Amino acid sequence: MSVNQADTVVVGAGIVGLAHALAAARRGERVVVFERDDFAVGASIRNFGMIWAVGQQRGRVYERALRSREIWLEIAAKTGMWAEQSGSLHLAHRPDEVAVLEEFVAATPAARDRGVRMMTAEVALTSSHVARPDGLLAAMWSPTELNVDPRRAIPAVADHLVAEYGVDIRFGTTVRSVDLPTVSTTAGDWRAGRVFVCSGNDFATLYPEVYADSGLVRCKLQMMRTGVQPGGRPLGPMLCGGLTLLHYAAFDGLTARAALAARMAEELPYHREHGIHVLLSQTADGRLTIGDSHAYGMTHDPFEDEAINEAVLDYLGTFADLPDARVTERWTGYYPSLRDGRTELVVSPEPGVTVVNGVGGAGMTLSFGLAEENIGA
Questions:
Q1: Which residues contact 262 (CB under 8 A, 6 or more apart)?
Q2: Which regions in the chain score pLDDT beneath 70?
């Protein structure tokens, strides 16, 4: 076989691209991944590291998230990558939040079958040493959530693909055009049987007409991270509060959510205007990741708004009490998002080419399962 030949070419070495490379390589295919940057710098490393099945749309997408979780654990077992089976707690401090959670548990047998259940406040407080007891009424426990450290996990997955499956990952190489069987790159031409374009926020280089008609917009978010917590004590379950019940598709269609949304609009208009809901996760070395906000559009200014960060931290303080809440890092993230209820964009602009995008903020959670569906594994 020629050096410049592959069965499958993947464009983009973020989590979506790496997942498709893995699914193809597991079928015994020769896979080459092209990434224009020298290392991953996009949404795949600028996130919470949450494999957050419980928040996904009920049904097929939830099952996809659980399959992705299995693959993350398989990779962790082979590589020694940190992957904490921490689970999650949705903390409820108001009766309308309890009502949404109780309705979700009652309406979702697939989640109940996997251990999702309501907890009393007393039991929840024994599960989390940072959950704030003041006014806590109840919580929803889910054991399926997995915590990885994105800045370490994405390179670990890439290294695993190379070592285990012989995937060729070409960083610092841009794919300029695709005219199968030819894939033209800044490092020369390749011949390929098929191509998966997983280019994230780059809507311009390949198939811009697909993105123009797709409904995709870019989401800008703000996130923060603390230093290592005193004593190195693990966070335990990843945490969230009532605002999260208005963010994730898992809670769409629940009748109790309307009352919650009305109250939040009245009491927290700034948070709702800026798409703020608050999650808390941990890194491999014990730091805590906090966020986030959501602004949607094709082009965003590059600046952080400290008022948004303050609003996030203020809301975090209503349900969590951190040993050391001092922020040591702040950053913005950007990812493509579909705003019409679709969970992904999978389009074939020409034979042999598949564009995969639009998984939004659930790339870490859904990509491995989605890739298996797309590859036919």
A1: none
A2: 1-3, 377
